Amino acid sequence: xxxxxxxxxxxxxxxxxxxxxxxxxxxxxxxxxxxxxxxxxxxxxxxxxxxxxxxxxxxxxxxxxxxxxxxxxxxxxxxxxxxxxxxxxxxxxxxxxxxxxxxxxxxxxxxxxxxxxxxxxxxxxxxxxxxxxxxxxxxxxxxxxxxxxxxxxxxxxxxxxxxxxxxxxxxxxxxxxxxxxxxxxxxxxxxxxxxxxxxxxxxxxxxxxxxxxxxxxxxxxxxxxxxxxxxxxxxxxxxxxxxxxxxxxxxxxxxxxxxxxxxxxxxxxxxxxxxxxxxxxxxxxxxxxxxxxxxxxxxxxxxxxxxxxxxxxxxxxxxxxxxxxxxxxxxxxxxxxxxxxxxxxxxxxxxxxxxxxxxxxxxxxxxxxxxxxxxxxxxxxxxxxxxxxxxxxxxxxxxxxxxxxxxxxxxxxxxxxxxxxxxxxxxxxxxxxxxxxxxxxxxxxxxxxxxxxxxxxxxxxxxxxxxxxxxxxxxxxxxxxxxxxxxxxxxxxxxxxxxxxxxxxxxxxxxxxxxxxxxxxxxxxxxxxxxxx
Amino acid sequence: xxxxxxxxxxxxxxxxxxxxxxxxxxxxxxxxxxxxxxxxxxxxxxxxxxxxxxxxxxxxxxxxxxxxxxxxxxxxxxxxxxxxxxxxxxxxxxxxxxxxxxxxxxxxxxxxxxxxxxxxxxxxxxxxxxxxxxxxxxxxxxxxxxxxxxxxxxxxxxxxxxxxxxxxxxxxxxxxxxxxxxxxxxxxxxxxxxxxxxxxxxxxxxxxxxxxxxxxxxxxxxxxxxxxxxxxxxxxxxxxxxxxxxxxxxxxxxxxxxxxxxxxxxxxxxxxxxxxxxxxxxxxxxxxxxxxxxxxxxxxxxxxxxxxxxxxxxxxxxxxxxxxxxxxxxxxxxxxxxxxxxxxxxxxxxxxxxxxxxxxxxxxxxxxxxxxxxxxxxxxxxxxxxxxxxxxxxxxxxxxxxxxxxxxxxxxxxxxxxxxxxxxxxxxxxxxxxxxxxxxxxxxxxxxxxxxxxxxxxxxxxxxxxxxxxxxxxxxxxxxxx
Lengths: 533, 482
Prior knowledge:
The structure holds 2 protein chains of 2 kinds. By secondary structure, chain A is an all-alpha fold.
């Protein structure tokens, strides 16, 4: 009976993730005015998918333990449900203007991680429940704190000094775990400084690369980043080193718009990889295991071979939740959780999971794009890059597309620090999405009433929606005004290096020219915001 | 800055779509090459309450099936267990043979959802069944011929690599492996668990002259003339022909037909080690043959710096060369199949419980081990072995009944017979542990080969002792089966 249900559930899970991803993409298209779609209904459909996913999986977990002690699993599933659905509801209550698709993606991944971990290792799952709760609380509180924190772009030295203190601490007190020396123990709690350094690193780079840096201005950030990456390499934490390096490259590229730096950076990392390959035996072993795991299935190729067996043995629909051979997959709760998901939920579901990550990057890119403050834009870009490369490295490694570097799958893998930090990053991204221009560069603009300026940017950024006739009327009326923000944006970027007096004039004149049209646009943007929730 | 962000987003999109693409390709296309790896624990899955798939011979007769017992568990029951024991194997003690290598197929439940829902009303949940290429009629003839002695018989269809018959003796009863395990496992004199057809390695004896002759033909050295006196001294040792028989004036054809050791020793020296190694390499010695059963690689360890005596001994099949009966059948099939060696296989297809065909094995080429013209020339040499050489009693004819209707309306049944041209080669393998092993490899009919056979009888003396078994199998197959 249970088996029948598990097999039916296998297809249900595929449907849930398909509906979730479909709605995600449709919401995105609608936000870009490329398709008509009811965003509110789409977000609700996603939430229903998350809730159904949790319930369907919980029934399997409970049915499997009917012969044993049923109480802990029921408690776990109920708490999991409360955290997932309740946490998501709280985000709506506290931050109605945040990106709720991003919240939905996070809660979907989290819930998948929760049910998967309970199936793999109940002890770790219970801990993960606590870590997730801490993370969600952080995610709910942080935007409020960031909101009242002044001038985050001013503390680049503080960020980098803190980062180096943490790095030094890791090098001195670090513990070896899973081949990488990247743990510090404070009392009973294990702590992974490299996760916190990630956040500091992105803050530092965003502050350092803020004002379209010249080549000279790039030298210091490059040396600092190089030092951090080398420290991570010294700790044999290659995965983190790569994530940091790629984040640096992406942020430099976005800050300078210069292909040359990007290509130079890719060339440098390729050269460094070749040199590292020839110097270090542990890198050679990993590359050999990647190139041909079948040569030495029982030793060097063991991890990757077991992962591939798990992914491929049952075909693309998987064997069904809890029916897999997860015991045979190494480090299945952390690095290889994706293989276990492929085995039990099927490769189609796993492809949907990858698309959920794509949705997160879409939101990250939108957060960066819609922002007119280059510090915040860079911050958002950097955080998105962290997620993107972390997810790419571990999924690519587990499916043998690239050599394996042990990092966690964000929100899904077990991990204390990495889970909490992932929520912190999401909180920062949400804050950026919510407050597009809290910290401007141009001092004069700050002299203008902040509330007025805030409303202006909103208006400037939110493009008209074509959903209703009333809206399209508003567009027609607004047409001459619509050009204004584009123009001012160009102006403000080009005039950034001009004297402050000039800028002040522009800013003031901008205010005055826009004033007549404000009333109407404010109305339509209010509609827009309302429909986004 | 904005356009850079968009570009970066496209970069993410591309690499993540690549991840999805790679994942799907991995699962749909690449997985076949590694999922069957023995380190994959999922392959040895066994779930209680599932009826393991049955195994059938080529005609659909049951070889192995699960029978429901009174206590609700299943018991594996084998029919004609002794003749199939090595190929089909057993399900206990770590499993062996087809039962082991195809365990996953036999225990996988097709249309799982439907079967499991149906099982709520009491039907059995069944794994997939397998249909083998083995033909029970040939198996029983082979088992009868091998009865009472150690040896192995392998028959193949040359054009496909289909194994038609594979028997190894001494055998065992697969129904009672568990009970007799200690005895079976410790019997080192008979090693009944060893599949001599695929795992047994023997000196090829004169059957190796096929390889030496192929090397000579490929290298254009077919016109060597030689006067055999029954013995010849090479470097520091003397080589004898069988029974020290002096064959007289010999050319390649007559030396091959009479199996003249001294001729082939001289020919080997004339060819040299490198050419012999080259030919052996192209014949797939020392290589994996990708058989989905336990097997040993046939080995040809001679190196380019071998001394004259090693070359001579290797050239007529002694030396250090070791072959399995299956491998000799593959070489023989390749000669019959214009030089193309086919991938041998024993499982033709799987059947779902509803009777749907799954995973049909398509004949696959292993490699072209010699040119078609070499194969044709070898075929002629092998025909002469049967027509005028050491294997004259391999010739047979098929008889069939024709019904003729006379003008009066009554019909007359008359029996007609056709001579079948057999091509073959005998071999007598000297063996340091006892009496010579008898080898015979053959295929028939020579002009349109339907079956190739390799027979090995341990310690049975001269090669011609192995001929009758091969003849009976070929005759049965050509007359009654194909």
